[in-house]
Specification:
With 119 residues, the protein is mainly beta. The chain has no helices and eleven strands. The strands form two sheets. Strands 2, 4, 5, 6, 9, 10 and 11 form a seven-stranded mixed β-sheet that branches. Strand 7 and strand 8 form a beta hairpin.
């Protein structure tokens, strides 16, 4: 069974840093793209950052220059380093991945991890 397991997150003061990790478990899966979405109370979910297996990345404009996403294909893990955090970064962050197994490609989601930035 394929799962995405997130770790990291927590409470930090504005200007601080946090890192998130996401591990894809499962036999014989390969990563096409991994990333994070976030959803704050009362707001729509938004893409924060994603990284493709070839190393290309996309970032939300609001996090460019502050967040860095990286991928370890061998470990099937993605990392999100978040620096200079702002109160508006407070949200639940969900790992997302498109994983291929054989001829099938499916999208998976983690359960989410809370990031809270105090002012």
């Amino acid at each position: 069974q394929v799962q995405l397991v997130e770790s990291g997150g927590g409470l930090v003061q504005a200007g601080g840093s946090l890192s998130l990790s996401c591990a894809a478990s499962g036999i014989d899966v390969s990563i096409r793209v991994m990333g994070w979405y976030r959803q704050a109370p009362g707001k729509q979910s938004e893409l924060v950052a994603r990284i493709f297996s070839d190393g290309n990345t996309n970032y939300a404009d609001s996090v460019k220059g502050r967040f860095t996403i990286s991928l370890d294909n061998a470990k099937k893990m993605a990392y999100l380093q978040m620096n200079n955090l702002k109160p508006e970064d407070t949200a639940k962050y969900y790992c997302n991945a498109d994983l291929a197994s054989g001829s099938s490609l499916r999208r998976y989601w983690g359960r989410g991890t809370q990031v809270t930035v105090s002012s």
